[in-house]
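Researcher: We plan to redesign the surface later, but first we want a full-length starting point. Tokens attached.
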């Protein structure tokens, strides 16, 4: 099977992007990172992507003012020009309209720094500390029009420790993000993830360690 041409959309430092690029260096990995696209010309991740030899593009949302549709059409045009098959949002800080989401049904992934459905939106680590939860984490899910929702592909838990600061907790979560995003993309790109009744079902078998991160049903081959 040919490797799925994947675009990573970023707005910032791109550490998840880097984790995906690293994973895709292996020729057996079922996705190739064909493009890194940023809405911010100053996103640090752009340079990192270019250094890794990956095509980069900028669609600056500011150039479109309040015209979200025009911005998204420009995004879509770049993705089409690069023959992109899968999209990974990785710290992409724009809200997407239902139109754009509909261009990528079960082909657009997002990573969110919380155990969804808890703590949708911003400042997840601060809010987790304020809420006093004992467990926090990260989630990779398919993108649907409602923000930070959609079928969950992979999820990793971390403990919240008594003296945690926002930064310490964020770092612990980020380390797990870098494990589960490459795993989730691998499963989707290899065609092993299906959505049934709004939930992901994964065709097995999975490494025991991977299975830990997959809350969905893992269907063993007969
Ligand atoms: C990550 O915490 C991700 O979960 C969230 O935005 C952050 C992006 O970080 N969506 P990076 O740019 O991947 O380092």
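Model: Full-length starting sequence:
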């Amino acid at each position: 099977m040919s490797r799925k041409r994947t675009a990573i959309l970023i707005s910032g430092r791109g550490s998840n992007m880097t984790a995906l690029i690293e994973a895709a260096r292996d020729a057996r990995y079922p996705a190739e990172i064909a493009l890194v696209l940023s809405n911010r010309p100053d996103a640090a991740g752009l340079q990192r992507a270019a250094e890794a030899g990956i095509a980069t593009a900028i669609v600056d949302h500011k150039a479109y003012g309040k015209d979200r549709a025009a911005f998204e059409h420009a995004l879509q045009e770049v993705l089409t020009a690069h023959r992109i098959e899968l999209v990974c949002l990785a710290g992409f800080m724009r809200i997407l309209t239902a139109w754009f989401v509909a261009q990528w049904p079960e082909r657009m992934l997002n990573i969110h720094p919380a155990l969804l459905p808890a703590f949708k939106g911003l400042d997840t680590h601060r809010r987790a500390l304020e809420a006093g939860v004992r467990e926090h984490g990260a989630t990779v899910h398919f993108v649907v029009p409602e923000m930070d929702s959609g079928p969950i592909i992979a999820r990793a838990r971390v403990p919240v420790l008594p003296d945690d600061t926002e930064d310490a907790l964020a770092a612990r979560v980020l380390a797990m993000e870098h494990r589960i995003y490459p795993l989730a993309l691998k499963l989707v790109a290899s065609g092993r993830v299906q959505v049934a009744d709004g939930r992901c079902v994964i065709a097995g078998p999975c490494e025991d360690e991977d299975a830990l991160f997959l809350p969905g049903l893992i269907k063993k081959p007969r």
